Each structure stands twice: as structure tokens, then as C-alpha cells.
Amino acid sequence: MKKDAIFVFSEDQLGYSFSDTHPFNQKRIVMTLDLLRKSNAIHDEDIIAPRIAADSELLLAHDEKFIEIVKKAGRGEAGKEVADIYGIGTEDTPIFHGMHEASATLVGGTLTAVDQVMEGHARYAVNLGGGLHHGFQGKASGFCVYNDSSVAIKYLQQKYNARVLYVDTDAHHGDGVQWTFYDDPSVCTLSIHETGRYLFPGTGNVTERGNGAGYGTSFNFPIDAFTEDESFLDIYKTSLREIAAFFKPDVLLTQNGADAHYFDPLTHLYGTMEIYKQIPRLAREIAEEYCDGRWIAVGGGGYDIWRVVPRAWSQIWLAMKQLPSPNGALPQDWLDRWQPQSPVPLIGTWDDPAPLYEPIPRKSEITEKNAQMANRALHMIRNEV
Questions:
Q1: Which of 194, 178, 237, 186 is nearest to 378 (CA)?
Q2: How does residue 78 score in pLDDT terms, banded at 50, 70 and 90?
Q3: Burial of 25 (0-12, 13-18, 19+ CB in 10 A)
Q4: Which residues constitute the domain of residue 70?
Q5: Could you tell me the CATH number of the domain that includes residue 327?
Q6: pTM over cut 0.85
């Protein structure tokens, strides 16, 4: 019988670990799954283990030489020059033991989710270990070694002949995925992110629209620092509806970074849990309207693993299961388990406390600036005859 949703996870995904002090911390997946379990929203039969992506699958989006260097680095056999040439061994993306195997497991998790949906075993599937959107064909970048979304989209094209709409709501621009498909008219990329004037990777301007046959299938919405819920959600809802109607995808792949939240230590946006309630519910609606329900979700950024990510990522699963967004207190046994490990007091409720921050003096100016930017980004499809 076809399931509503599948949750891809095994503890093998936790091997993708740069160091105990690195901001990218896979404990957030464990915390999210534990929150869902203690909320009685997920059960063992909903969970399947990821497979490891084969080299032939990684080659869909990565160079053979790069894959070999990653393997050598994970065995301690790579020299210092790999940092400059291949992007590993840097402060952002340091080398760790077993780097290839751990990275290939995250890619395999997304491919597992793809097959579950495309072969009709589940309507939706989520791999929170994925979403490594900064990885390039021959270079690691921004905490990302292999780019699971790029590999998965190539896999969707080759195995299932699918037109893919990729939607990225991480606070950082989804650069690796965009550039992989920049000239491909059968893949449409939509990224809402903090403007590159202030934040890595510095790309994602509205003028990045695609190239050649792919011109007009790349959409970027660089929102201003200090953007709040209303402006973020207005751009998200408007852009996703209009772009889906324009592109008419066969399948929806969403990257669900949770770093646009006010508490995130690496970004400058002022989102609250409200955006994470609404993002996946509209994604499901769009998948139902255009893709016969085919929706694959992956994780991504999110660096306040204690107060933000588990609550935000739980909303993806709740939306997939068509369960209401809960209100009130988090399960006490979840709080009891994780508070002793947390360096900050946990938020004890599904919603954020209000007010979460002092009023922003420039709110109206930021909102208007974002609206003008979104109009420019959507101008081309709004003016098609």
C-alpha cells in the first residue's frame, strides 16, 4: 500500500561530522526525529535507511578526479593543495576521516527518497541529511562536499525523465544547484535567501536568470537583512505559485534550510517559527496541483540546533502526514532529554515566545525593497504573452 510519507534516516548519516565545534552538526536530525517520536507523529514503519550513492551516481554531478580526491582526503592521503583546488581542508569544509563514505551516504539518502516517491511507494519523502546545496562539480564549498540535490535532479532526469522544480528556502543562496542547471530548460531553480551583499556565498542576484536554453528558468529572491515573516512569506507564496504555474513541473524538490530564523548565529534574517509552519504546507499544495503529489524534501542549513531546527524540521513531516501544526508545550520528556546537553535554555513551546525581538525601525522600508526586488525577479514570466 502506498504510504503518505517516508522519513529517510539511519545513524550512518551522523558520520558526516567535521568536528565537535563546527556549526554543521547532524545531532539536529536526531533531535528532530526524537521530537516527532515523542509527539507520537512518527513510527518505526515510517522510517527507512539510506543507501550509499554509487560512484556512477555521484558522477552525474561531480568530476571523477574530485571524487577520488575526496576518497584520498578521508583516508588521510591528500596534500595541503586540495584546499585551494578542491575546497576541502578549509576552515568551512575541513577534512575528516571517512569523508567520502559519509558524504555518499547523504547523497544516497536523497536518492532513496527520490525512488520511494517516483516508484510510487510513498507520496512524499524527506531526507533531512541532505540539502548540501553549495557543492560544485569539482569543488566542495560551504560545509558541503557532494551536492545531493544536484545528483538527485540529474538522477530524476535520467531515470524518470522528469521536469524538476527545485525550491530553496535556506538563508544562503543555493548556488551549487543553480549553476549545475543554469543552461538546462528542464530544471527550474527558485532560491529565496539573504542578499549576497552580507552573506556567503555572495551570489543569487535577481539578474541570474539562466543561460542559453535555460534562460528564464533560474529565479532568485535576495531578501534584505532583518527581513521578517510577513515579507518572507509574501515572496515565498507569490513566487512559488507563479513559477510553478509557469514551469509546470513533474516533481518538486525542496531544500529546507532552517537558518532564516532570528536565533540563527550565521545569518541576519528575522524569521520566526511561523515561516517554517507555512513553507512545507504550500510545497505540498503545489506538489498536489502540478506533480500528482510527488514531493521530495531535504534538509540544509540551520545552526541553532537547540532552539530552532528540531521544531522547524518537524513541520516538514507534519505537513507530509497532513497533521495539524501543534500549539502549546513541547513534550516534556523531549525537553528533559536535551536540556542538559544544550548550552542555552530550550524553547519549551512549538511557537516562539512573543515578542521574540525588538521592533525593527526599518520594517516598512525593508518590506518595500523586498517587494520591488520580487517584482523584478518575476517580471519576465508576468509579461509573457
A1: 237
A2: confident
A3: buried
A4: 3-382
A5: 3.40.800.20
A6: yes
